[in-house]
Amino acid sequence: MTIAFPSVTGTGSNVTATGFVLNELIREAFDVIGVGSEGEPINADMYRRGKMSAQLMTQSWNAMDDLWRRTQRTITPVINQAAYVLSPKPMRVLSARRKQLSGGYETPMTEWSRQEYLDMPNKLSSPSTPVNFYYDPQRETGTLYLWPAPSSAVYSQISVIVDELRPMFIMDDSNDTLDMPPEWQETFVMNLAKRLKLKYPVNDPGLDAKVDELADALFARLKAWDNEPASIYLQPDNWGAPWR
Predict the structure, then answer these.
(1) How are beta strands 92-100 and 106-108 bridged, if at all?
(2) For 16-47, how does the pLDDT look when each residue is reduced to its tens digit (9 = 90+)?
(3) How confident is the model at residue 197 (pLDDT cuts 50, 70, 90)?
């Protein structure tokens, strides 16, 4: 798959990025550690082992907070209903906002911890305007809880916009492409090669160390890049509250 970007100003040329498929990424990772680099075939079992390592690594990387995996969804409230199953299940809910359908005014909601939500005695008995939320990420499902539950006077007047961290697509078919920006492909290959070394040891100590060094350096550089450049502002507590 080739992704075409806008023309570069002043040159009229196009910048393109190629998305390699799973089998190509696996072959490149084997090539990095010297397996298959001299034309010897990579058999089906080696591809199977490489795919398993790629899938496990992707699942581990799901626990990272990547800017390009942040997305939004809209929830339609139901009268006196506190729990809303989110499918597909997000890794995390980063924030939530209550939106007035008339006028579009949005109000940030306050996130609660699990204990804070469980400690509330009136989860359904006093429906009103939701002002707090709690996200419960279980193994198979994720459930968003609103407090208080929407009342009959409120539910049809609002929606809840959830900002969440979505999971990455796990490559399974040989022609699946990486669910990451193009600049992550080399980092993915080098870190896959680093894992494959545990199954196919590298006899050259210099190459062995170089693979680890480059894999770690590429990963650190992209994670440093994958941050919002916006400023953070801090100020003292105007009320003079003591430290906790």
Answers:
(1) antiparallel
(2) 667 899 999 999 999 999 997 666 788 999 99
(3) very high
> Can you spell out the DSSP letters for 146-212?
EESPBPTTTGGGEEEEEEEEPPPPPP-STTPBPSS-GGGHHHHHHHHHHHHTTTS--S-HHHHHHHH
pLDDT at residue 230, rounded to an integer:
74
Give 71-88 pLDDT, tens digit per residue: 999 999 999 999 999 999
Q: Give the span between the Cα atoms of 60 and 225, in whole angstroms.
A: 19
CA atoms within 13 A on the CB side of 99: 12
CA dihedral defined by 190, 194, 200, 206, rounded to 10 degrees? 90
The residue among 75, 92, 96, 93 whose CA lies nearest residue 84 is 75
- The answer to whether residue 15 scores a pLDDT higher than 70 is no
- What spatial distance separates the first Cα and last Cα of the chain, rounded to whole Å? 53
